[in-house]
């Protein structure tokens, strides 16, 4: 039985076991990893009612804690969402194994043949908040890339995460891989997070997945390298040449499909020339869907809008609320996004190729889109099988972090008695 009162000792033990497991995973075959993930998927589906029952406990906890409707939606699991977890596990299983893949190869005049190949990072620590499906996504992607993982889920998803984690371990057991390859921190105590951030001897990288408070804490206090996943302050700029019906369909989808995900649009920028030609139909469509529209100037004349506060631009609402602004052309739109964006996902709706290229060149968000909903900012939609998060930093991994992004590389150099003069 783990000693939950001595958190430093608990985490040191978890770290040591993860490091030992990572050494075994480094030479695990692609077939065994595939079998573990398929086994986990089957276990999740077989145990779906137990997972839903565990999730019911978490929903009660979330209500008592006063979580918003959007956060409760992120937390909730039903059979359809469990099917999504199963599908994601299977999709990751069927992805090409990245470990050992040759990224580049060349031969030097000295006769040395040099290959740069993908290699596991080692041990990954994932700290996340309410979404219990992250337990499966993160565990699967880390395993696929040959890494051991230490999962620290949010207090809200404690029971759901444990039920899903048990299925992952069942898959590992059946495939003959170490159960310690995927470990879940067995306590809600926040001291465990503080410990993870300083475990430089056993954790190779930390991936925080959650709100600004969590990511800020990790970035400030981590001694372990971090893949940052910042807020999703996603913008859509509707350019002057945008097609009316397309623009409306994209805007509605980007805001209302699911408001609690990081790819939800939080700010809409409408070109003045587009507005002059087409009127306030985009604002009206949002209002008709029940979205609270916070805006300024001319758009306040649209019945039902409310005046935006200074901090509404650059805010991640994760709710049926949006900030909307009229802008005088592409330059003002780009300046606004540079000022208020989070380098996550931003989109342009336009039929002008030059404007689209300028938008792509001048902004440095991890994901830039043209004529598409920001809700596609997702590793599964990118064909990665799943994602561990959307990295908004500039080092190593950017955008959706799938299995391939959870590897490093090493050089394999072969000679035939080569010596250096």
Percent of sequence in beta strands? 15-25%
Mean pLDDT: 94
Poorly predicted segments: none
Helix content: 40-55%
**What is the CATH class designation of the largest domain?**
Alpha Beta
C-alpha-based Rg, rounded: 23 Å
Strand order of the largest sheet: 10-9-11-8-7-12-13
CATH topology of the largest domain, what is it called?
Answer: Aldehyde Dehydrogenase, Chain A, domain 1
| Quaternary organisation of the protein chains | single chain
The count of helical stretches stands at: 14
* Known CATH architecture of the largest domain: 3-Layer(aba) Sandwich
Biggest sheet layout: 7 strands, parallel
What is the count of distinct domains? 2
Instruction: Assign the CATH superfamily of the largest domain.
Output: Aldehyde Dehydrogenase, Chain A, domain 1
- Helix and strand string, N-terminal first? HHHHHEEEHEHEHEHEHEHHEEEHEHEEEE
What is the overall shape? globular
What distance lies between the first and last C-alpha atoms, to the nearest angstrom? Answer: 60 Å
The helix/strand class is: alpha/beta
Give the beta-strand count: 16
